[in-house]
Amino acid sequence: MLGRFEYARPQSVDEACRLLAEGGRAAAVLAGGTDLLVDLRNGFRSPSLLVDVKRLGELQALKTRSDETVVGAAVPLNVVVENRELRKAYAGLSDAALSIATYQLRNRATVAGNLCNASPAADMAPILLVLDAELTVQNAKGTRAVPVATLFTGAKRTCLVPGDVVIDVRMPPLDGELRTAFRKQQRIRGHDLAVVNAAAAYAPSRATLRVAVGSCAPTPVLLEPFDTKGTSPQALADEVLRAAAAATAPIDDVRASAAYRRAVLPVLLRRLLADVVSGRGGGI
Amino acid sequence: MHDIELRVNGHAERASVPAGMTLLEFLRDRLALTGAKEGCGIGECGACTVLLDRTPVTACLVLAVEADGLDVRTIEGEAADGELSALQRAFVDAGAVQCGFCTPGMIMSARALLLRSPHPSDEEIVEAIAGNLCRCTGYEAILAAIRAASGTGGEP
Hints:
A: Uridine Diphospho-n-acetylenolpyruvylglucosamine Reductase, domain 2; Uridine Diphospho-n-acetylenolpyruvylglucosamine Reductase, domain 3; 3 domains; five-stranded antiparallel beta sheet; about 35% helix; globular; B: alpha+beta; DNA polymerase, domain 1; five-stranded mixed beta sheet; 5 helices; 5 strands
């Protein structure tokens, strides 16, 4: 038994919002459950009500048109991994999803859940930051867009409030070629969180590079955009490394020391930049 | 308490369960289907792997009430009329079973793989069972068993 709590499976988003608003801080959204149920078991959280949003139709949308990419909040990671249109448009997104946990867990875990759990090491965060993704969030008062860049307010903390339901994650329209990649340093493939993770998105026609780093600060960090015009790959890499070092503050924890994180971050970033700038394609 | 209806290995089941009961507890304690094991209880080891609507999940991280209306398959659904499935037979023949604790979950992950990819590559096999820890075999015999079962069909 994972504890004493109530369970509700609302039939509509409105009903879910109402239940969550009534429950306040004692209510929790249940999507894939791969973080929440572990927290219940370990006694880290003890909500009195779980509101299961998995079967709500709006949260199961998956659109991959060139002008609109939408991943519903209840779409399991494996569906993202296996979607060929998504891989074609955003290889870094597919690789980030594939890097999370195991096949069984990816059948339950969701993109939105990975974000809302707000781990500093969340693997979906860096790639969605560099893609300028937004969450569609609904509550009793209405619907609003929350940029992923403003979602995280601290380790395991977000700007979402009781009564909010994340409906989907939206990527802006693709404007010309965009090369994306994700890299993750972990101790064991398949069963480990990131020691350091990072994602990049490079738009050659606009000479713009975006880079985000995870697991090196209380929240995932999006660096200021880089102008790649007239910059050699070496000079660009040096610039990215300087910016990343300045924007992060790694700590010692169970997975790695701060010193190791500081040492491995430049290595990971150089590989990441080779992935996108030279167009060599990604890899984890 | 929540009233649930689900199919388990082809049988319709109805039950009343508390919200905090996991699918694994429901299968083991209510239905006496003790093939799925609790190893870690936090989705790391895969010993509790069952199929939920044909996809493998760790039953320790699914609430019984979440399985309402869905189709569950466990290791007990593999053998028919006392005959091992081809996949189970391949595990026996390859010596892929030692202590046996991981085996039910391992076979369910392999079953799900064969359902979605009847002739899996070695890479696919490795990825499919990456979430099933085995501390005895060193995995080679398990890979051999799943290779041998390739092409025997998704259904047991």
